[in-house]
Fold this protein.
Amino acid sequence: MTENSSARPAAIVTGASEGIGAELARVFAANGHEVAIVARRRDRLEALADEIAAASKSRPTVVELDLTAAGAAETLAARLAEAGLAPQYLVNNAGFGLIGAVATLDQAEQLAMIDLNIRALTELTLRFLPSLTQTKGGVLNVASIASFMPGPGFAVYYATKAFVRSFSEAISYELKPAGVKVSCLCPGPVITGFQARSGMSFEGLMGAMKPALVPADEVARQGYEGLMAGRRVVVPGVVNKVMVWSARLSPRAILLPLLGAAQMKRS
């Protein structure tokens, strides 16, 4: 049950300060949802809230929060309650990646990646599940086409996204009888702040992955529509769909060296 029966239903978007997260906030607002946007960078959130307010009925609620901090889920729940909001849709978009061999990357950063990409996503989903059930809402988890593949040179990131997809597909089945939709959005490469955070070369990415690039706003649109249609997995872009299909059919003995070579071009 929600803490306040008179609370207004809202879409909660994490990692909303830029890229796909910001576009998802725009899409939900454009479709008439009240929105709460969550990230660490208040200045970017405020700018996005002002932009959305100019184009829609209400200004998004801004929540500056580090989701890896102890008690973050309860802090977010309290902030939403203060704003009179009840989560109806939870968009778990916050996450990051690191490119490089596991033996050379910083251990603490790799563990922090697991903490944000997996633990925080799971904790928020479990924390807000009663409200999502009461409001007959849904969960949109943002993974990646990486979730279908092994990732030498990007090993921990690929593994976290495999968890996200597996978790999403399983709970979509579990929660369907309760009227809660769950979708996993699996984009290919999208030019956002993710590349700079991961240590990826923009020049290498553009050369190697340009055919698979789908704009962030289009990824967000397809993610929203997929969630509302109750689709378990959404893969934007024809090239990305082909890559997923090929990865599922290819023996790992062939796929691993191919992906390892591709990552070298992106680093």
About this structure: The mean pLDDT is 90.
